[in-house]
Amino acid sequence: MIQVENLTFSYTGEPFIEDMNFSVERGEIFGFLGPSGAGKSTLQKILLGMLPNYKGTALVNGTECKSADSTFYESIGVDFEYSTMYEKLTARENLVFFSSLYKRKVRPIDELLSKVGLERDGDKKVSDYSKGMKSRLNFIKALIHDPDILFLDEPTSGLDPANSRLMKDMILEEKSRGKTILLTTHNMQDATELCDRVAFIVGGRIFALDTPHNLIMSKGAAGVTYTWSENGEQTGHCDLNNLSEDATLMKLIAENRVTSIHSSEPTLNDIFIEITGRTLV
Question: What pLDDT is recorded for position 275?
Fold first, then answer.
């Protein structure tokens, strides 16, 4: 659904995105992870046809992005990090207006409002919405015309845990409906939970691209910490891949004397720092 080959882009003459290559399959959630200024938003604008002066190839649903016309936007939905709604209109009026821009059959507005918990606020002006309410409204605006591809920019930013969970469940629901989703974020928990594959981007370059699980496990096996009581609490450590070789642990298990056991592995954030030398802030 998305094919990028030898993509290079510059704002000033100096390359900002340089020789970038990746592809996104139909029905995949693909995450671009990086700190502010890494090139995530620029890449998204290229793929949306907003920055046509690039070199290389950028195909979205078979269309070269620099040649995008009005039909190109029938198949994509975009959820920017910041609200793009008309503040003086109600949520419902906004959704009716934006749905009128598409030739596709639109999804029921009341159903979408209900999905994000805004069914009682549909006739309230957007200017009276909180940041979190605007974020949820912006998300369903991207779904209104039932697009094939979703571009989501920090979709859980500013949401409380309950609404963040709701948003992530909806993203997974869209995936189950066959949607292709490109997610840009610096939230590694979201990326680990949602993405089939992720790319680490810093300075307009991809440093790593794989599944979250493979990236995490490529940096060594998870460790195991266990405790038992013997003249006070004792603690032991071993690698998850070598449990059977830890004689102490095997003896404690046989004697049913283990009081606790926990496995731990690097987080995606740990791997990002190790590979790129950068943090996500």
Answer: 86
This prediction's pTM: 0.85
For helices 161-176 and 131-143, give the axis angle rounded to 10 degrees: 10
Which residues lie across from 59 on neighbouring strands?
3, 64
Q: What is the phi-psi region of residue 12: left when phi exceeds 0, alpha when psi lies from -120 to 50, beta otherwise?
A: alpha
Say how many C-beta atoms besides its own lie within 10 A of residue 267's C-beta.
14
Tokens encoding 156: 């859980």
Provide the angle, in degrees to the nearest 10, between the axes of the packed helices 131-143 and 91-99: 20
Please enumerate in sequence order all residues whose Cβ is within 8 A of that of 240, keeping only pairs 6 or more positions apart, or say none. Answer: 221, 222, 223, 224, 263, 265
> What residues contact residue 277 under an 8 Å CB cut-off, 6+ apart?
none
User: And the tokens for 110?
Assistant: 């009341």
Backbone angles phi, psi at 236, to 5 degrees: -130, 160
Nearest to 158 by CA among 199, 190, 126, 195: 190
The parts of the chain modelled with pLDDT lower than 50 are: none
261 vs 265: CA distance, rounded Å: 14
